[in-house]
Design a protein that fits this description.
alpha/beta, 5 strands, globular, binds adenosine-5'-diphosphate
């Protein structure tokens, strides 16, 4: 039984995240979506809202793939969280070169702390590669069309926040 941990802020979950989750679901038996509780940036959505959105979006993927997908808030070291949930693999999405440098450092540091947990990088489909939660929020705040970046459910939640 292989468990993967896909960590992020998911503020909110986008079609880019969903594409990565769908791809990861073919690689593991159980996927834990690690939802970072607080980050310096201060999320727009509360932890409960982010968890609820992730759970709602992942229900269909879990049903389709037959794997278990759970949302797991965490506020500690990523590597500690991975150990706690029994993950042997950390899944990260790679967008552009900009992501690479940060991820490269993270793998090096995490590996120094625990060499048994592998990090795998997945690329989203070309349609979703440019999507970033931060930009989706900005576009929504300025009344732009976000329908190609997030699900209708998440789009409604975003519009509600900025109303
Ligand atoms: P963001 O950087 O958009 O705020 P997160 O911090 O929640 O998103 O990111 C969690 C993980 O998902 C990271 O590994 C990030 O690189 C990845 N990710 C986010 N958006 C995409 C995307 N459009 N394509 C591929 N990976 C993505």
């Amino acid at each position: 039984m292989r468990t993967g941990l896909y960590p992020g802020t998911f503020d909110p979950i986008t079609l880019g995240h969903i594409d990565i989750i769908r791809r990861a679901s073919t690689l593991v038996d159980k996927l834990v979506i690690g939802i970072a509780i607080n980050r310096d940036k201060g999320p727009l959505f509360s932890l409960d809202e982010r968890v609820a959105m992730v759970e709602a979006e992942c229900a269909a993927i879990a049903a389709e793939s037959g794997i278990k997908i759970v949302a797991h808030p965490f506020d500690n070291l990523l590597i500690t969280c991975a150990q706690e949930v029994g993950a042997s693999v950390i899944v990260r999405g790679l967008r552009a070169v900009a992501d690479f440098e940060y991820e490269y450092q993270m793998v090096g540091m995490n590996r120094a702390m625990n060499d048994e947990i592998e990090t795998v990088f997945l690329m989203a489909d070309a349609h979703y590669q440019a999507i970033a939660s931060k930009l989706v929020k900005e576009i929504c705040r300025l009344d732009g069309d976000i329908s190609t970046f997030v699900s209708p459910r998440v789009a409604r939640a975003l519009k509600e926040k900025y109303r």
